Amino acid sequence: MLEISLHILDILNNSITAGATRMSVRIEEDAAAAVLTVQVTDNGTGMTEEMLADVKNPFSTTRTTRKVGLGLSFLEEACRISGGHLTVTSDLGSGTGITATFAISSIDRVPLGNMGETLSGLISAYPNLDFVCRFVNRSGMEAGLDTAEMRELLGPVPLSEPEVYFFIRDYIAEKQENILGGI
Ligand SMILES: Nc1ncnc2c1ncn2[C@@H]1O[C@H](COP(=O)(O)OP(=O)(O)OP(=O)(O)O)[C@@H](O)[C@H]1O
Ligand SMILES: [Mg+2]
């Protein structure tokens, strides 16, 4: 895939399929500005140890529509070519965590993409699920959005409302630009 944000979208779709109601994305630049770490955690069903051991294998899937599952193997490849790696942890019954690292200055690293564009569509498609997105930069500056907090502020207005969709899209994009602009 051409952008890290599209890999994140794919990973979040796994979480939704696993019945998660709360998903958190944290995108962090380290103090040396050398490594970008993307962490996605969910409170879905989790995986058995056998599934977890095999999860990055493209022929490992619980899909019934086809025999290959490419999401995690594509992400692992994108990490690997930039000199990073992918780690998956999971607890059956409590959730899953994905940590993907990328060497920021590698010429083979795909760009982060626009998390506002990527997440706003998912949030309006699943207005009752909770999504958190946080950006952290090399100086430790942080910003982001938690849809649970937004839902409380909005009261009866659903997150799928078109105006809310545009607000969320632009808000996340602005935070990304302020904290991680250029990555
Ligand atoms: N967050 C998660 N919670 C529980 N199980 C997961 C999670 N992410 C992945 N899995 C398991 O790992 C398998 C492989 O995931 P992967 O994204 O690589 O492929 P897929 O989702 O099956 O297919 P594709 O991504 O190509 O549509 C899934 O079928 C699912 O069983
Ligand atoms: Mg998948």
CATH class: Alpha Beta
Mean pLDDT: 95
SSE string, helices as H and strands as E: HEEHHEEHEEHH
Count of distinct structural domains:
1
CATH superfamily: Histidine kinase-like ATPase, C-terminal domain
Global structural class: alpha+beta
Distance between the termini: 16 Å
Q: What percent of residues adopt helix (DSSP H or I)?
A: 25-40%
The appropriate CATH architecture is 2-Layer Sandwich
Give a written overview of the molecule.
Strands 3-4-2-1-5-6 form a six-stranded mixed sheet. It has a single domain (4-178), classed as Heat Shock Protein 90. The mean pLDDT is 95. The chain is built from six helices and six strands. The longest helix is centred in the last third of the chain and has 19 residues, at 162-180. The chain is of the alpha+beta class and 183 residues long. The two termini are 16 Å apart. The structure holds adenosine-5'-triphosphate and magnesium ion. Magnesium ion (MG) is lined by residues 10, 13-14, 69, 71.
Question: How is the secondary structure organized here?
Answer:
Elements: H1 4-17, E1 22-29, E2 35-42, H2 49-54, H3 71-81, E3 86-91, E4 95-103, H4 115-125, E5 130-136, E6 142-146, H5 147-154, H6 162-180
Parallel strand pairs: 1-5
Antiparallel strand pairs: 1-2, 2-4, 3-4, 5-6
Helix pairs in contact: 1-3, 1-4, 4-6
The structure holds adenosine-5'-triphosphate (ATP) and magnesium ion.
